[in-house]
Design goal:
Elements: H1 22-32, E1 41-44, H2 54-69, E2 73-78, H3 88-100, E3 107-110, H4 115-127, E4 131-134, H5 138-145, H6 162-174, E5 183-186, E6 201-205, E7 219-221, H7 223-233, E8 238-242, H8 249-259, E9 265-269, H9 281-289, H10 304-310, H11 314-324, H12 335-349, E10 351-353, E11 355-356, E12 359-364, E13 373-378, E14 388-393, E15 396-400, E16 420-423, E17 428-436, E18 442-450, E19 467-468, E20 471-472, E21 477-484, E22 511-519, E23 531-534, E24 538-542, E25 551-558, H13 563-570
Parallel strand pairs: 1-2, 2-3, 8-9, 10-23, 12-18, 16-19, 21-25
Antiparallel strand pairs: 4-5, 5-6, 6-7, 11-22, 12-15, 13-14, 15-20, 16-17, 17-18, 21-22, 23-24, 24-25
Helix pairs in contact: 2-11, 7-8, 11-12
Adenosine-5'-triphosphate (ATP) is lined by residues 45-47, 55-56, 58-59, 79, 241-242, 271-272, 279-281.
Length: 582
């Protein structure tokens, strides 16, 4: 397990306590029966055709987590058999993302490392009469394959002699034939009820430059032919993949048995689906190419680089994956559940600070003009070691526009004329009057304070129903805040009206930029990646776009929004409820 991950601050990763599952049981059984002489080894096999997403996090935690639990190791293997779609940029991002999640691989491999071996084995299968060169094109292969209710038909080319096949296969490799004109197929059973066993394609001709092997090859192995053999070459004992490969398992075993090589075994588990979220590299690539988002690491993207930039933690992701578990049936997990784990983790680790997103001036008429007091503020009530800091308090403050109503609706306990509230870590204040602009909007609230309530309590036991946050106007620093909503407005992004594609479900309000936020001065030294809880507002982190002259924050996630329900009924504002006491 990696300890090199800066996110882990050098601490070894402790696997969260999880209920057992059928895969873990299988590991235990195989160890008990000495199936692989007490050894377990897994691999994570991404295709470098895009950035990893939250679904991959599940596979990574499973592959690395189980191997680690049973004293084995995990290889990272790039499944790079489609030269047209694969790029080095993706290889690099995948390595960074696996490490960010807190894992380190034992071996680093590429399916392309095995091209020569796979070719030699294909020749071996041809010599054994188990593979042949076919001249049918893709469309014809499909027709001959039959259907679930109808047997397939043998290709008219299946009867070639071994010598003919060896000759044609070699010439395929040499580049004598055009793309799509020939394939190498395994000779299995055109009447098999399993379509994957009806003479599956092992090699196709693709004249394309590969990100690693360049132009050395113009024939490429299919996933089915490459995957199991790569597992076998690496002595993988448990090769986990998602359920859609269940029907490929007989073929996986057929190749390994026909070649008489190390008997890796394939195990399938359920693919992660999340509401409001697309987990498909192909579709995410489309969003990037269409510029629906600002790149793969746009904080609205469900990519690991996107959620990292947004402020999610690797610990939260691992806890989430541990808790959803694995099953043998596909389902959909509520996004709210992932968000729960993000909040839970951020709550423990984030420093609290005061920030006003939509400022309204609050002037304390009876506070001395030039006075500045340094108020003691707790950095993290969840972590005593996080200590305290000083926050400057002065005559003119900013509060949230939503924390004042000239005419308060029923159930509104924040500031309004004649009402007293607590300024967090400050004093009790009572609103007295307002200043309006030409449009009749309140631009300044005047109040009085009770000097006896310093620190936030009244010596006479007087209670207030609300505590609001604030920032001293003269000390405030400015920042841009990017607030995100779900990228898709439909819980199932793929559920679209006839004739439209999934982009029809994009949420036009997924990004809101606030430019006038006022921050307490301690945030001046915040660095990209630093995470905070903005009191009463949610969790935020410093974005990569920040520089010495401008801070940019991403809203990672809001606090649990109990006020929103009340709010909807009264239709007053969108801010979360004030807590009764700090
Ligand atoms: P995509 O369709 O997004 O490209 P994929 O399955 O083709 O996904 P690979 O790069 O081939 O992506 O995946 C590497 C590993 O991650 C595989 O073992 C795959 O089964 C697993 N994986 C991919 N998506 C999910 C998911 N949503 N849930 C769980 N595991 C996944
Ligand atoms: Mg794939």
């Amino acid at each position: 397990m990696s300890t090199s991950n800066p996110e882990n601050k050098g601490a070894a990763y402790a696997a969260p306590a999880t209920p057992t599952n059928f895969i873990r049981e299988m590991f235990i059984e195989d160890l008990k029966t000495e199936k692989y002489k007490g050894r377990v080894w897994t691999r994570f096999p991404p295709e470098p055709n895009g950035y990893l997403h939250i679904g991959h996090a599940k596979a990574i935690c499973l592959d690395f987590g189980l191997a680690d639990e049973f004293g084995g190791g995990t290889n990272l293997r790039f499944d790079d058999t489609n030269p047209e779609k694969e790029e080095t940029e993706y290889v690099d991002s995948i390595m960074a993302d696996v490490r960010w999640l807190g894992f380190e691989w034992e071996g680093l491999y590429y399916a392309s490392d095995y091209f020569q071996q796979l070719y030699d084995w294909a020749v071996q299968l041809i010599k054994a009469g188990k593979a042949y060169v076919d001249d049918l094109n893709a469309e014809e292969v499909r027709k001959y394959r039959g259907t679930l209710t109808e047997h397939g038909k043998l290709s008219p080319h299946a009867g070639r002699t071994i010598d003919e096949n060896l000759d044609l296969f070699e010439r395929m490799r040499k580049g004598e034939f055009a793309d799509g004109t020939r394939t190498l197929r395994a000779r299995i059973d055109m009447a098999s009820p399993n379509m994957n066993m009806r003479d599956p394609v092992m090699y196709r001709i693709v004249h394309a430059t590969h990100h690693r092997t360049g132009d050395k090859w113009c024939i490429y192995p299919t996933y089915d032919y490459a995957h199991g053999q790569s597992d076998s070459l690496e002595n993988i004992t448990h090769s986990m993949c998602t359920l859609e490969f269940e029907d490929h398992r007989p073929l996986y075993n057929w190749f390994i048995q026909s070649l008489g090589i190390f008997p890796s075994q394939q195990i399938e588990f359920d693919r992660l689906n999340l509401t409001y979220t697309l987990l498909s590299k192909r579709k995410l690539l489309q969003l990037v190419q269409n510029k629906n988002v600002n790149g793969w690491d746009d904080p609205r993207m469900p990519t690991l680089s996107g959620i990292r930039r947004r402020g999610y933690t690797p610990e939260a992701m691992r806890n989430f994956v541990a808790n959803i578990g694995v099953t043998k049936t596909n389902g959909t997990i509520e996004l709210a559940m992932l968000e729960h784990f993000v909040r839970e983790d951020l709550n423990k680790r984030s420093s609290r600070v005061m920030v006003v997103l939509n400022p309204l001036k609050l002037v304390i008429d009876n506070y001395p003009d030039e006075q500045v007091e340094e108020m003691d503020a707790v950095n993290n009530p969840e972590d005593a070691a996080a200590g305290k800091r000083k926050v400057p308090f002065s005559k003119t403050l900013y509060i949230e526009q939503d924390d004042f109503r000239e005419v308060p609706p029923k159930g509104y306990y924040r500031l309004s004329p004649g009402k007293e509230v607590r300024l967090r870590y400050g004093y009790f204040v009572t609103a007295q009057s307002v200043v309006k602009n030409a449009a009749g909007e309140v631009v300044e609230v005047h109040c009085t304070y009770d000097p006896a309530t310093r620190g936030g309590d009244s010596p006479d036991g007087r209670k207030v129903k609300s505590t609001i946050h604030w920032v001293s106007a003269t000390h405030a620093i400015d920042a841009e805040i990017r607030a995100y909503d779900n990228l898709f407005s439909n819980p199932d992004p793929n559920d679209v009206p006839e004739g439209q594609d999934f982009t029809a479900n994009l949420n036009p309000k997924s990004l809101e930029v606030l430019t006038g936020a006022k921050l307490e001065p301690s945030l001046k030294s915040a660095k990209p990646g630093d995470r905070f809880q903005f009191e009463r507002l949610g969790y935020f982190c410093v974005d990569l776009d920040s520089n010495s002259s401008k801070l940019v924050f991403n809203r990672t996630i809001g606090l649990r929004d109990t006020w929103a329900k009340v709010e909807k009924k009264t239709a007053v504002s969108t801010q979360p409820s004030a807590k009764a006491k700090p």
